[in-house]
Amino acid sequence: MKILPSIFLYLCIVNSNVYADELKSGFVYLSEIDPSIVINLKYHNNENFTGKKVKGCNTGRAVLTDKAADALINIQEDLLTYGYSLVVYDAYRPKKSYDEFNNWLQNEDTKEIQNLYCPNLKKESIKSKGYIKTKNAHVRGSTVDVTIIPLQTKLCISGPKEKRSYRDQKDIIFENDGSLDMGTSYDTLDPLSEFDNQNIPEVAQKNREFLRKMMQNHGFVLSSKFWWQFTLIREPYMDSQFDFDV
What we know:
The chain has helices at residues 3-20, 30-33, 66-82, 97-106, 111-117, 123-128, 202-216; strands spanning 27-29, 38-39, 63-65, 84-90, 143-150, 161-164, 172-175, 220-222, 229-232. By secondary structure, the chain is α+β, with helices and mostly antiparallel strands. It has one domain (25-232): Muramoyl-pentapeptide Carboxypeptidase, domain 2, CATH 3.30.1380.10. The strands form 3 sheets. The chain has a 5-stranded mixed sheet with strand order 2-4-5-9-8, with helices on one face. A two-stranded antiparallel ribbon has the order 1-3. A hairpin with a 6-residue loop joins strand 8 (220-222) and strand 9 (229-232). The chain starts with a helix and ends in a 14-residue tail after the last strand.
C-alpha cells in the first residue's frame, strides 16, 4: 500500500514532462497564462480564405513566444478596465502552413469563398499587392491577428453575414461575430481592410484606432495591410522561421 503514492507521483511527473516538451523552448500556450483572452484560431478550422484547416494547425491552441504572450497579458489588463477583451484569430503558425497559401493562389475558389474573403481582387493582385507575403511573420511566433469584443458579448464562431456597400468601393460580405465593428471581417483580402482606408464608416475607423493604440502601448506595430495584424517590435526570433506543429 505504501508504494502506490510513489508510483502515482512518478506517473504525474512523467506526464507533466511530456506535456511540457510539446512546445519549443521560448514559446507558451496563451490560454495557460491568461485564460480570459478569447481565442478562435481561424486557420485551425475552415473559417479562413483557404476554406479549410491549414497544414500544421492541429489543436486550436494559441502558441506565442513568451515575450509576445506577456505583452498580450498587459494589453488584456488595459482592455478589461474599458469593459473589453482581446480576441485572438491567429498566433504562431508553422512555416509549412504557407504551402497551403501557395496552393490556394494556384487553385480556383468556390463562389462562397471568393465573395466572403476576396470579393474585389484577383489572386495575382492579392499576391502582388502584398496581402500574402513569401515571408510570413506568424512563423516567428510574435505576430498575432486580434480584435476586441465587449465583455458581455459571446463570440460567434460563425456569425451572421450581410452585404455592405462603402463609398467608392465594391460590395463586401461582412461577418458579424460579436466583436467591435472594424469595417471588414477578419481575413477579408481587400483594400478596405487596410488600417488607414477612409472609405469605411467613422465608427469603424475609431474602433481600429482604439485597437491600434492598445496594441502599440505595449510594443506591437501594426501591419500596413490588415487592421488586425500586429507584430511585437522587440520580437525575440526576428530572423527565424519555425516549423513545429501546433
